[in-house]
Structure prediction request, 384 residues.
Amino acid sequence: MLPSVVLQGGGLLFVAVVFLLLAVALVYSSIVIIRPYQQGAYTVLGSYRGLLDQGIHFIYPFVSDVTRFDMRTQTLDVPRQEAITRDNSPVTADAVVYIKVMDPKKAFLEVENYERATSNLAQTTLRAVLGDMELDDTLNKRGEINSRIRQELDEPTDEWGIRVESVEVREVNPSKDVQRAMEQQTSAERKRRAMILEAQGERRSAVETAEGDKQSNIIRAQGEKQSQILEAQGDAISTVLRAKSAESMGERAIIDKGMETLEGIGGSESTTFILPQELTSLVGRYGKHLTGSDVKENGHVLEGLDFDEETREMLGLDDIEKILGQIDAEADVDVEEMEQQAQKIKHGEDSGIVDANEAIEEMDQEFGDGGNAPGDGSTDKDDL
Prediction:
């Protein structure tokens, strides 16, 4: 009897454990928890019953199924793809696609796996877009590639309840041979630009040096011209002063010379004497000279032989003080400063380069207005 009682007690315990496990499984399968960022497609015995929002939901156990959809933006990594561009250059590229489930019902009923379907569609679209562009465009127009891929994905994914929010191509790499060719091309282009810049720099330097030499020569020529003008004016003044000195000697010098001539005639052995027509006048003037009667009343001014009006105008005797003042003013020229200015311009330290004709014209006007204009009483070198 005892063994049979023990057997019956063990069977009841087993049955109780089985019922407990079934109850736990029943409760677990009948409760569904939907998170705040999810929605669930609810089916019973294969029949679509609707969508479950966030929270706790009780469903039919063992015969129901709930497929959860993440309503947040999701990132799909598009594997690296190989493509041939329109100009027959092989390239490889990969991208990232950002999608979001907008209609869980369509994503559940219209496509088996929307993530895999979107990724595969993005791969084929990426190859097609790259194959329709030139190599340079694939490297430079990254934004255009992104826009075209997104447009190609929009229409089919709308039918799946998926919205493509953005497409970003991460890398587009040509083949190694093309990369080497591009590097050589870039290197050659840089060398060409460097040579152009160097040639332009040498040309500019030569032009500036020539302009500096030109301006230096102009200033030096101006200095030499002014020096020659001052020298000529000095010669003219010297002549005027000698003439003035001769004027101050006046008639007394003529009398002395005449008396010396008569003395020479008297001392010769010749018996023939040639007397000048002006002998009487000469003797009379000599008498005045001996007696001092040629002295005027003021006691210090001697009579002199006056120059006629034409001679005085030619020699500029009336304007002697004016000429001397002009020479003093024009001689006050700092030639050393002019030479230093020429050296600065030659070495590019002074950018105030003027045209040669304008500089010479300004100097001509300056010296012309300073007292060398015809008829102002001064004497030019050409007049001498």
